[in-house]
Amino acid sequence: MLKVAFSSGAKIAACDDAEDHSGAVVKVVALAGGVGGAKLASGLQAVLTPGELTVVVNTADDFWLWGLRICPDLDTVMYTLAGIANPETGWGVMDDTFFALGMLSRYGEDAWFRVGDRDLATHVLRTSLLREGERLTQVTARLAAALGVPGRILPMCDEPVSTLLYTPAGKLEFQEYFVRRAQKDEVLGVELRGIGEARASREVEDAISAADAVVICPSNPVVSIGPILSVPGMRRALAESGAPKAAVSPLVGGRALKGPADRMMSSLGREASALGVAREYEGVVGGMVVDRADERERAGIEDLGMEVLVTDAVMRSEEDRARLAGEVLDFCGSLGA
Ligand code: FO1
């Protein structure tokens, strides 16, 4: 497996033997949404040394349920990096039980959002700490540390932001669309409520300015990475960072591996392809990583002024995650800022 090490300036060098670079520190920032993003983040965690990885996570799909603040993407990344994510769904906690949800159903509540008993503890404590005045950044750091996550997980901002989707059935809250209505509605527009009042936190800005490489994980470009890039101050922080930046396409052969990214891009009038994803990140990244199935997209992406790495981008195993992460970091090392 590749071990990534810092060489000089804003360069990342890959070598086979970590010992050659003992003491060298590489600072990598990954931008991620839910399940797909968490997989690559865990690959990055596997090839980096503890403390070298910071994951900036989408919080625009956060919402309130039964008085609790639920942060699905933060929790998906946190559980994955802690090694306790449910391997079947990618979200929620492994081997969780649903007694609390069953009781809520018995009280007549509609249990459409499947919160497990262990997962519930996260929401209870998070909500309590937020009510005591802690910022989401601090709460997340505390939860992740308690679960033994070696890297840093940062919410994209501390202010509440909500994704609203315009559909033929009307304006829908994100989880209403995603979970309750099983993503069946056509998405005609996206609104990020509260984004104007949000700002990239000091921690996010510092992490990006200190980064040796920035990786956009294979998450939905519209509703996962889109909100992160829309946080005021985020694009400026990325543009001012001298780090090389690469994005991994979440579309393979024009299809999303998970979730509605392909349908959403089409219904919003964008091209559902690796090239379409590259267009979303024009001006942000210098390189795109696409699957072998998308080799034919190479020329179009290069025409946007980006370098292209074609590889096996589908992560079926832990080994795939680490291999892809190593390749993406090597690729970053070959890119200029
Ligand atoms: N996704 C579902 O499809 N159904 C669920 O019942 C569900 C519950 C859930 C509970 C906690 C959590 O952290 C995530 C959960 N998710 C569920 C996933 C989540 O809604 C989506 O993956 C993201 O919001 C999209 O990135």
Compact description:
The protein is an alpha/beta fold.
The Cα radius of gyration reads 19 Å
Helix and strand succession?
EEEHEEEHHHHEEEHEHEHHEEEHHEHEH
Give the low-confidence spans: 1-22
Spatial gap, N to C terminus:
26 Å
What small molecules does the structure contain? ligand FO1
The number of distinct structural domains comes to 1
CATH homology-level superfamily: CofD-like domains
Give the strand line-up of the largest sheet: 7-4-3-11-12-15-16
Helix content: 25-40%
CATH architecture title: 3-Layer(aba) Sandwich
What structural class should be given to the helix and strand makeup? Answer: alpha/beta
Biggest beta sheet attributes: 7 strands, parallel
CATH fold category name: Rossmann fold
Task: Specify the CATH class.
Answer: Alpha Beta
Q: Kindly report the average pLDDT value.
A: 93
